[in-house]
Amino acid sequence: MPKEREDGRHASRADRDFAAAVRCFKTADHGQALQRARRAAREGHAKAQYFLSLLYEHGFARGLAHDRERKHEKRLAAYWRQKAAEAGYEKRPKTSKPVFLEASLCEEADRCADPADPAPDDHKAAALYRQVVDGNPEAVNAHGVSCASRAMEALLDLYGAGRGLSAEAEAWLTGKVVWEESSYLQALAALALSRMFAGGHGVERDESLAALWLQRALRTAKAKSSWWMPDAQYALGLHYLKGRGVERDDAEAAVWFALAAEGDHTAARCMMGHMCLEGRGVEQNMAQAMRWYRDACWEIVWQFDDGNAKARIRALRQTHGPRAFAALLSCTQAEAKNGNVDACVLLGVLYIDGSGVKKDPVRAASWINKAARAGDAEAQYLLGHFAEWGIGMAKNARAALRWRQKAAEKEFLFSDNSECFGEDGEKRRWLRRQARKGNSFAQYELAVQERRSPKRKADLLRLAAEQGNRSAQHLLGLAYCMGDGVKQDYSQAAHWLQQAADNPETPPHFDNEPGWPQSDLAHLYREGKGVERNPVLAAEWYAKSLDDCNCCAALALAMAHEHGDGVKRNVDKARSLYKKSHWGRPGADEVAEFFLELMT
């Protein structure tokens, strides 16, 4: 404990400085945190001394300390840690991660359920998985994955295939749907029941109950990006399309197929193409049908020998049957002859794969060439691949480079398209040419590479941001926050961060940290900079950013729950968020434990 001074004045000031240091650190103001913690530590505050040692030891003070301190961070960390120990605040021994019984049970169940095991036992595996789900809900395996979720997913596969079923399986799953606290486990249990009733596994086959449990699973799931949702949405669409257990409704089927298609479900995209082709549940639209069919097998564009791509082609045929596929092929050929670029690309892919037609690389290249000359970026990239490898044409490296650059000019695969350029100098010249033509990704790339002139960097970011480039909008907002290349203006910062946070259009590979604009915008709302202070809205934006694994957002949201700032005070939720926040730095788990201790 810190030494008490005679008049108590210095001790109270040290307490205030320490509290301010912690508060500044939680708001990512590491400079102020370092300054206030140093002041409290010099006054003899033991916890401040230990906190200061953490800042030095784990690099949180790097770039903020004085020049003479930067070279001696480890020595300073050891010095302040020793001071804290002398004042009575000993460093607790670092405890290893707890080993949960549920993790070992899960591993044993996996072995029992493995068909390659010498003595597989599905019933024993299912019993062990149920034991794990009924066990400690906080148990995780060595990879940090919830044991309960992992076990329920395994049960879904077992019961859905009619394996490991017992007399109490239906009652146990129903109980989980009704009483389980985790919405994810509820949804998985409902989905397992749906598959059991649909296949008649362990229960009497009942399509109406299968549809009912399927609807319950989709309604219960809060995480809209769960891996199983596209399959479930497609299955429910089939129920409505064929009138299995529900009243037949083509329009409702189209809604569910469209949702599954958004999750990259091949059969759902094929079905949407079929419905657009025939006008079932949606308005008949030949062009849209071609688009859906093309999207169903788009992976063939990337890797011709990819098993996933060929699986998509097979799904295209299996969804329609031989006769319907022949009719589709006839429509595709007619549309391609009329200049429909989607039909041209689809026909080229079919000729490459030899699905429904005789395999013919020359005709494939001819149709792809027609789409490429019509200005389709994917076809241009694909034609470049044909030219490079001599698929349906003679090898031509210059033509391959030219077509790939044409695709890149349309911002197709820009950041991953390194084969579009020769030397680095050629790439930079190409970027400059495209930036002058208004290519937003070229403008953004040049801005990121700019090191000499902050003003030029800000100008390039503004050009890209005005065209809707999400990453540029984010960086421009930060530039206004810090006054980097522009006059500091928090209202402009809020404007551009809001644009970035609301912008769903940028492909994921152009923004490696999709949750950061929301987190930075939340910070402005929390501090009232450039916008009216609104803790509730700040907490909402932090929560949205948390969905993208933003650790800083987890830290800020933990503090909000700890103090009830914008949300209802919830100490348990704050503890959980502190444990999950690692801030992307070595040793951050130790800092999290320190904050957890302060809460006790």
In short:
By secondary structure, the chain is mostly helical. The chain is built from 30 helices and no strands.
Explain how this protein is built:
By secondary structure, the protein is an all-alpha fold. Among the domains are: 9-86, Serine Threonine Protein Phosphatase 5, Tetratricopeptide repeat (Alpha Horseshoe), CATH 1.25.40; 422-512, no CATH class; 515-600, Serine Threonine Protein Phosphatase 5, Tetratricopeptide repeat (Alpha Horseshoe), CATH 1.25.40. Helices cover 66% and strands 0% of the residues. The chain is built from 30 helices and no strands. The protein has helices at residues 9-26, 30-42, 46-57, 67-70, 73-86, 101-113, 122-134, 147-160, 169-179, 183-199, 207-220, 229-242, 250-262, 266-278, 286-296, 307-337, 341-353, 361-373, 377-389, 397-409, 424-436, 440-449, 454-466, 470-482, 490-502, 516-527, 535-546, 551-563, 571-580, 588-599. The longest helix has 31 residues, at 307-337. The chain is globular and about 85 Å long. Mean pLDDT is 80; it is low at 1-10, 62-70, 301-307, 413-418 and 506-512.
